[in-house]
Amino acid sequence: MGPHRTLLPPPACESPKRGRPEKHPRREVVDAIRYVVDTGCKWRALPRDFPPWRTCYNFMARWAAAGVVGQIRDQLRKRIRREMGRAPGAVATVIDSQSVKAAETVGRDSRGYDGAKKINGRKRHLVVDTKGLPLFVMVTPADTTDRDAAKEVLFRLRLMHPEITIVWADSGYAGQLVTWVKAHLNLTLKTISRPKDATGFVILVGVQVNVALARFP
């Protein structure tokens, strides 16, 4: 399992109550979770080389609810930053969003219509460091404005990462949000406008945050 094995909750059989031993090695369960994240396949379509899909899904759900997945993500990010010669904790970050079309199976209560992008679905809100490494992700209906979502995203981010001092964003986050973030979170929100003559994708903040968004399943 590597150095991140210690971040996983101990098996029930190792608890004081001595629960039933786990039937499948955790290495195989973790590999199955990574396979689903990497390929985007349905849990029910998990290849038979892995443990039963329901077993893998239940492990993932429990670990996610307990915050284990976030802890592993943070430890991996810190390790990569150290290998880059950077401090483990980022002080400068970038926030952005991306609307994506939802499948027909997605309920109306969790989808919305983004009039600007003409997309009926969901919107991913992502905060990354200046190297594109993720710090926080939140998913909302696509009709949620960037400014409204940013208040909750940055509030949670502030609690999780008090070392952050500045957040870069495009002009969609400009306006009263800048003042609100400074007054309530003591963060500096810097917005950058898109060049008037620009066409297609343009890097505004020195980091390809859309690349990080595209990697998020």
Word description of this protein:
The protein is globular, with a radius of gyration of 20 Å. Helix 1 packs across helix 2 and helix 4 (146-160) packs parallel to helix 5 (176-185). Strand 2 and strand 3 form a beta hairpin. The chain has two domains: 3-66, no CATH class; 84-215, Nucleotidyltransferase, domain 5, CATH 3.30.420. It contains six helices and six strands. The longest helix is centred in the middle third of the chain and has 16 residues, at 68-83. By secondary structure, the protein is α/β, with parallel strands linked by helices. Strands 1, 2, 3, 4, 5 and 6 form a six-stranded mixed beta sheet that branches.
Task: From the structure above, extract its key features.
6-stranded mixed β-sheet; 2 domains; alpha/beta; disordered C terminus; Nucleotidyltransferase, domain 5; 217 residues
What's the total number of strands?
A: 6
As for the number of domains, it is 2
Q: What is the CATH class of the largest domain?
A: Alpha Beta
Q: Taking all residues together, what is the mean pLDDT?
A: 85
What proportion of the residues is helical, as a percent range? 25-40%
Radius of gyration from CA coordinates: 20 Å
What is the CATH architecture annotation of the largest domain?
2-Layer Sandwich
Number of helices: 6
Shape: globular
The helix/strand series, from N terminus to C terminus, equals: HHHEEEEHEHEH
Q: Largest sheet, if any?
A: 6 strands, mixed
Runs in which pLDDT lies below 50 for 5 or more consecutive residues are 211-217
What is the CATH T-level topology of the largest domain? Nucleotidyltransferase, domain 5
Q: What class would the helix/strand composition place it in?
A: alpha/beta
State the distance separating the first and last CA atoms. 23 Å
